[in-house]
Specification:
The protein starts with about 30 loop residues before the first helix and ends with a helix. α4 packs across α5. It is of the alpha/beta class.
Length: about 280
């Protein structure tokens, strides 16, 4: 905590925690992401009413209820279009979209591609546990092809989705990966992502101890990148390929400030007249 914002007492994290108690399974990696988010928000130095957290559906998407910031719990796969609309309409807000691998890369996969290329100034944090945890353990887009489970005996046989690679190919300006067992490290990545001028993507490896108990071993596999961040997408993808459990910033492109849009009219009568025309 003090590595992130040394001037802020650790107890200040509670200022961003709501009275709603998380209902994740004991040991779920998402607790670490919740801790990281509160620490990141403190480091940013902005009050909770200037931050909005938007989610879709899934275990991870319950997170806005556990914060005192503005929050919107949307529908499956639609966190990014909601967050994009909010940021464009209210550019003065810090907008953070969150979700899981099923929510973000399956039904929300198309939105992920276009959020990367549109480059609206916001951060997207995906808690990746390689399984649909809330719906009892189906393989997700990032599940390895030979993972045997009651839902998919023998595995799906499908090549897993590559979140960082797709983000790079689609044009995201900031691409990073963290591990929920290192909340301070994830907090630093989130702060960097929010401060980046453009669309920033952070994948967080977040073990599901209920349906993927073998993921507890991730803590022995993760390691910080020795190189990076790359300033070229191709070089960044080489880092992704060679470091499947690497953590840190893989790519930081040239910041591109979001285009300015005219303020929406608050005159309902004028809006009605324009609609009639």
């Amino acid at each position: 905590m003090n590595e992130i914002a040394p001037h802020v007492p650790a107890a200040a994290a509670e200022n961003f925690r709501s009275e709603v108690k998380p209902i994740w399974c004991p040991g779920c990696g998402h607790y670490g992401v919740l801790a990281a988010l509160t620490r990141a928000f403190i480091a940013l130095g902005r009050p909770s009413h200037e931050i909005a957290v938007v989610s879709g559906i899934g275990c991870s998407s319950r997170l806005p209820a556990y914060l005192t910031s503005y929050g919107f719990h949307g529908v499956h796969g639609r966190a990014l279009p909601f967050a994009t609309g909010l940021k464009v309409a209210r550019p003065e807000l810090e907008v953070v979209a969150i979700g899981g691998d099923g929510d973000g890369f399956s039904i929300g996969g198309n939105h992920f591609l276009h959020a990367c290329r549109r480059n609206v100034d916001m951060a997207y944090v995906v808690m990746d546990n390689e399984v649909y945890g809330m719906t009892k353990g189906q393989p997700s887009p990032t599940t390895e092809p030979d993972w045997d489970s009651p839902m998919a005996p023998g595995g799906t046989g499908f090549r897993p989705f590559d979140p960082l690679g797709v983000a790079l190919a689609a044009g995201a300006g900031f691409v990073a990966r963290g591990f929920s067992g290192d909340p301070n490290g994830v907090a630093r990545l989130i702060v960097e992502a929010i401060r980046f001028e453009g669309f920033a993507f952070v994948e967080v490896l977040s073990p599901c101890v209920t349906f993927r108990p073998e993921e507890k071993e991730w803590k022995h596999a993760v390691h910080p990148l020795e190189a990076g961040p790359a300033s070229d997408p191709a070089a960044a993808h080489a880092l992704v390929v060679h470091h499947p459990f690497g953590t840190g910033v893989f790519y930081r492109g040239t910041p591109q400030p979001m285009a300015k849009h005219a303020a929406p009219s608050a005159d309902l009568a004028a809006i009605e007249r324009d609609f009639v025309r």
